[in-house]
Amino acid sequence: MTPDPAHIPKTRIVGTPQIRKEGVDKVLGRAKYVDDLERGGMWYGATVRSAVPRGRIREIQFGPGIDWCEFVVVTAADVPGTNHIQMISTDQPCLAADIVNHCDEAILLLAHPDKRRLPAAVAAVRIEYDLLPAVLSIEESETRQEVIWGSHSEEGNLFKQFHLEKGNVDEVWATAAHIVEEEYRTGAQEHLYIENNGMIAEYSEAEGVTVWGSLQCPFYVHKSLMAVFALPAEKVRVLQTETGGAFGGKEDYPSVLASHAALLARKAGRPIKMVYDRMEDLAATTKRHPSRTRHRTAVDKDGKLLAMEIEIATDGGAYSTLSSTVLSRATLHASGPYVCPNIRITSRAWATNTVPYGAFRGFGAPQSIFAIERHMEQIARAVGIDSTEVRRRNFLHTGDSTATEQVIGEPLILDALLDRALKESDYAALREQFARENPKNAVKRGLGIASFYHGCGFTGSGERYLNSLAGIDVTPEGKVRVLVSSTEFGQGTNTILTQIAAEALSLSYDDVEMAPCDTSLIPNSGPTVASRTSMVVGHLIERSGHQLIASLQEQAGLGVSYTRSEFFSACEHYRQQHGKVESLCRYEAPPNVYWDDQKYRGEAYPTFGWAVYIAEVAVDTTTYSAEVTNFYAVQEVGRVLNPTLAAGQIEGGVAQGVGYALYEKVLLRNGHMFNNQMTNYIMPTAADVPPIHVFFEQIPFAYGGFGAKGIGELPHDGPAPAILNAIQDATGENFTFIPLLPEDIFVRMASFSPQEEPAAV
Q1: Which residues pair with residue 62 across a beta bridge?
Q2: From the centroid of its chain, how far is CA 63?
Q3: pLDDT tens across 14-70, in order?
Q4: 348 φ, ψ (degrees, to nearest 5)
Q5: Is the separation of the CB atoms in 696 and 633 below 8 Å?
Q6: Are 182 and 370 in contact (CB under 8 A)?
Q7: Residue 701 in contact with residue 707, Cβ under 8 Å?
Q8: Alpha-carbon distance 94 to 136, whole Å?
Q9: Cβ proximity of 130 and 76 under 8 Å
Q10: Rounded CA gap, 272 and 634, in Å?
């Protein structure tokens, strides 16, 4: 079934490529990022960090050659409240007091009026440690020979674990025609946002803490500052500045940096600015979780899935941060978009003495989807059936149930997505061409496919727990403002939400603007994560607009049809009666969405985005380099609210996925990232990103903003497995890990024995 365009409601503004709200200011250089801002009497801050992965702090010495009376110094002893950052749990100290648990952990802070004096001062601080044994891998953590987190029990070193079971896996193995087993690994990945982390903080006893910064989730920062400073909510104010990219990297870490800047501001009695350079940002902040996934799958002779046993292990780093929710999403995406009557998934997030891993676009799904989509390729080879056909035979359809026994109630068109991807890529003809030409050429070409879904919004009962509030108001100056804590960091929040508001109110796009992202002015609409902004918050804005129109019609004489002038006249009449013109709505879960946290069963997500991606690659067997030469992305993401921004989201996600698959390798030495420069942490450039062909099918979701689902994370999920499937098609080699670098291909394909392998450099 292909969606009928006639089923998409006609709209004036939604569905059109409106110009970005902040676009002109960015193009003309008027946009102010945190490092562009100055405050009167401002000093600058810097961080002294651990040089060891695990140890007890024995002594801190302030070296000669520095006039230390010019500096403000902050240690854990200066924290007036609790010395812990407030995330899902509170295990991460704001500043290390006695023990450090990873390289680059913050121990003390320095401030000075001349930022040029800070590097020398940081270098002059000498810290002596009593070294403790470090745990630097998932495998070391699993042994529990050293317990670095939790108690010496069965849960030592274990941040979180999940167990999901459907059917009876153990009864199937004996009767299966094929049992396919493999292990897959994914590496860490750095966000590489354009703008590094930065904060400005002020403190006064009368007014409390105010911070300005580059961030995703203002109320996350607000919560941590309340705890660190032992202040009530009204004495903490967080303002988002223009933010140059985030990708999840500014979800949790800004709470740390804001606390540091504010502690210095409190002790110095003046504003403090802290902005990391690229080397510090790369070494000290969170990354994507490395993972190891083991699949054991039973299939019949026709390639139908009979049973899946999946074990997932992620490296969470030194503190738990967001590891439990990343692990949850990894678990819920591990079985792919396929029907399987018997499934067992066991997943664990382990502590290690490395920089804590955190949120990154996809949030656990890219790791799991890499494993299942590479594994589907091996299943196809085991049964001798083309992988596109194996996928088609096992696709979920409307009425089928997922691993959590969630019944798919919405229209599901995976077959149509696959058909379109095969058609647009000319898949069949190219496969024949490559099979004919590859034996004669040094450059081997191949095609790879990945089919996948991404759950939209928070997992399970998460959205009910958030209880988000959002809305709109109308100013006396005749502007409609969108009131949300959802932030803009390049992905299009400002544009999409103002489009929705204008559409709901039957106004022009230019009549609507975003209220400043200031926790003293806006309601808590939840964090800007989890592909929830257009769907969840957008729906709240749509409802708020309709609610305001109803109120104006009932209480201010607004007609059923009205002009712009009549709308604002009615607003002024309403203001005289009520003092302000404001309409807020709180989150309401879609009907029949129930999740059992104890049994880990039920409706994991209110809806899903679905996709089929095809990668075309060329592998040079002389240089052993792999290049993506073409990419086709077909997805169903509900209503497309802004075609230009939507296509940009897909293109950007695919580009990041190319880097995840082939370029971006975090190198650790004793737990420290030592390739923390953009000269040796390699990301794809424009020359490395292929033509990306983007196609949408639209099936509006009734409980999303004008039918929208989530879109931001989906395009990062599928590229890596599609690329490695294509490399296997080109070379015949089964690579089970990413990133896959030329030296990895060389070791596998070069004609020498293991004894002749070159020494590592």
Answers
A1: 125
A2: 41
A3: 999 999 999 999 999 999 999 999 999 999 999 999 999 999 999 999 999 999 999
A4: -145, 140
A5: no
A6: no
A7: yes
A8: 22
A9: no
A10: 47
For the chain, helix, strand, coil in percent to 5 are: 35, 25, 40
Phi first, then psi, for residue 284 (nearest 5°) are: -105, -15
Compute the mean pLDDT over every residue in the chain, rounded to the nearest whole number.
96
Side chain identity at 729, as an amino acid letter?
D
The model's pTM: 0.96
Could you tell me how many helices (H) and strands (E) the chain has, helices first? 19, 28
Q: What does each C-alpha distance from 731 to 62, 108, 125, 744 come to in angstroms?
A: 58, 52, 53, 13
Q: Which residues pair with 585 in a beta bridge?
A: 470
**CA-to-CA separations, 306 to 173, 219, 301, 344, 408, in angstroms, rounded:** 9, 45, 11, 12, 19
| Token pair in block for residue 243 | 């933010």
Structure tokens at 149: 């987190």
Sequence letter at residue 400: D
pLDDT in tens, 166-212: 999 999 999 999 999 999 999 999 999 999 999 999 999 999 999 99
What is d(CA 159, CA 315) in angstroms, rounded to the nearest whole number? Answer: 10
Contact 725, 452 (CB under 8 A): no
Which residues on adjacent β-strands are paired with residue 233?
none
Identify the CA nearest to 228 among candidates 183, 265, 175. Answer: 265
Instruction: Write down all domains in the chain, each with its CATH number in brackets.
Output: 5-31+468-586 (3.30.365.10)
615 forms beta bridges with 448, 631
Provide the token pair at 320. Answer: 């738990």
